[in-house]
Design goal:
Elements: H1 6-27, H2 29-37, E1 39-43, E2 62-66, H3 70-80, E3 86-91, H4 108-114, H5 118-122, H6 126-135, E4 145-156, E5 159-168, H7 173-179, H8 184-204, E6 209-212, H9 224-237, E7 244-248, H10 256-264, E8 273-279, H11 287-299, E9 306-311, H12 317-327, E10 333-337, H13 342-345, H14 349-360, E11 363-369, H15 375-387, E12 390-396
Parallel strand pairs: 2-7, 3-5, 3-6, 6-7, 8-9, 8-11, 9-10, 11-12
Antiparallel strand pairs: 1-4, 4-5
Length: 399
């Protein structure tokens, strides 16, 4: 009965928010400090901002519409892929860090704050980023300004997960049209520019996966159909810069999910790719042999619509696999690199990368020396077998 009363519910959430903030300050002090130090401010005049598709991938990105919250999408992605750089759009308040988090509200930004270190990080920018914003409201349409923060920690029962967060406010069309006479056409133009700005920030930061949603389609009164259409327009412009773009839009009485489904109906998902992981010694250079084996194994999967060659970004077999994928004229073969993040994980980076590659793939083609095989390749073979991949092992001689 207590939770059925909206006022009591808000008071309950205020207490939870304050406790969460205090707990994060105690338990995640170093993580918060690291994220604060790795937060960058972008505006439309930022010199480093990429303005054209960086064409980082040989295939256009996959588009996914999910009936789930943003946090649920984060956990789903990170359970499958712990190495790709994930950027999450925070449907941010323009004027206040965390929106009305400490006041008991529970919109998208506040929900993210409840699940993470986000509020504690954003609070550090109240007297800088947010103070400037409060003085420059642009007729309630706000300015093209954003914070990009690395490694916000999100928590659920399976453990902490790190993702980047892109904090940016949508144009507040509700207030702008009511009090500033902003027209639909003006709103559409500014919304389009703001969405392009978001994509440019994400490209500049090197994100692989974007988690978006019905941005601005709540209290800011943006049309969910317009938001979905403008997102799709930007995706088509920057489609080779990302591997996946996920729209987390929970089904509810606001019909945002249905609006996005209607706009994205012919684009979502695309063909499923067969993910072929290639692994082997870093000092093996027999390119002809590796190419011949790749041709032979891939011929067994000729019925697949698309094949993705997955390699670890090192020398030897990895380099040969990369060159093989890039040299293919067939539109069905693409490339994904899984470089080890030595800066973040230190000595654990290589083994962690190998484990995640094996879990990511459907097929493993492994090259191993007959004498003294590499530990990394052996561990990848073991993980791939445990995960149920099709495993092909080829013994090679040292050159």
């Amino acid at each position: 009965m207590f939770n059925d009363n909206p006022w009591n519910r808000k008071e309950e959430m205020k207490k939870k928010a304050l406790k969460h903030y205090q707990d994060m300050e105690k338990e995640c002090k170093e993580d918060i400090e690291c994220s604060v130090n790795n937060t960058r401010l972008y505006d439309i005049n930022t010199n480093t901002l990429l303005k054209t598709d960086r064409k980082h991938y040989s295939k256009p990105c996959q588009i996914h519409l999910k009936d789930m919250t943003t946090s649920q999408a984060i956990f789903e992605v990170r359970n499958k892929d712990k190495l790709s750089r994930v950027a999450v759009l925070n449907f941010a308040s323009y004027k206040n860090p965390g929106g009305m988090f400490l006041n008991g509200s529970l919109a998208q930004e506040e929900a993210l704050c409840h699940d993470s270190t986000l509020y504690n990080v954003l609070l550090h920018f109240d007297k800088t980023y947010y103070a400037w914003n409060r003085k420059n409201l642009n007729r309630a349409m706000y300015e093209h300004r954003a914070l990009y923060t690395e490694d916000i920690v999100f928590f659920n029962d399976n453990g902490p997960y790190l993702v980047d967060v892109l904090t940016c406010a949508a144009p507040n069309y509700g207030a702008a049209s009511k009090y500033q006479n902003v027209t639909e056409e003006e709103n559409k133009k500014i919304l389009r520019e703001r969405i392009e700005f978001l994509f440019q920030v994400a490209m500049t930061e090197g994100a692989d996966i974007l988690i978006l949603g019905a941005w601005g389609a709540g209290v800011f009164k943006q049309s969910p159909t317009l938001v979905a259409s403008e997102f799709l327009r930007a995706i088509q412009k920057y489609q080779y810069s990302f591997t996946d773009i996920i729209f987390a839009v929970p089904k509810s009485k606001n019909k945002n999910y249905e609006a996005f489904a209607s706009v994205l109906k012919d684009t979502e998902g695309g063909n499923e790719m067969l993910k072929v992981v290639v692994a082997g010694p870093r000092d093996y250079e027999n390119e002809d042999l590796v190419r011949n084996i790749l041709n032979a194994v891939l011929s067994l999967y000729s019925d697949e619509d698309e094949i993705e060659i997955v390699e670890g970004g090192a020398k030897g077999v990895d380099r040969i696999a990369k060159n093989y994928a890039l040299s293919q004229q067939s539109s069905k073969i693409s490339l994904k690199e899984f470089p080890a993040d030595w800066n973040q994980y230190g000595k654990r980076a290589g083994p962690l990368r190998n484990q995640e590659m094996a879990k990511y793939g459907d097929v493993l083609i492994a090259f191993r020396y007959k004498d003294n095989p590499s530990r990394g390749t052996e561990n990848m073979i073991k993980t791939a077998m445990e995960e149920g991949l099709d495993v092909y092992i080829y013994h090679v001689e040292r050159e």
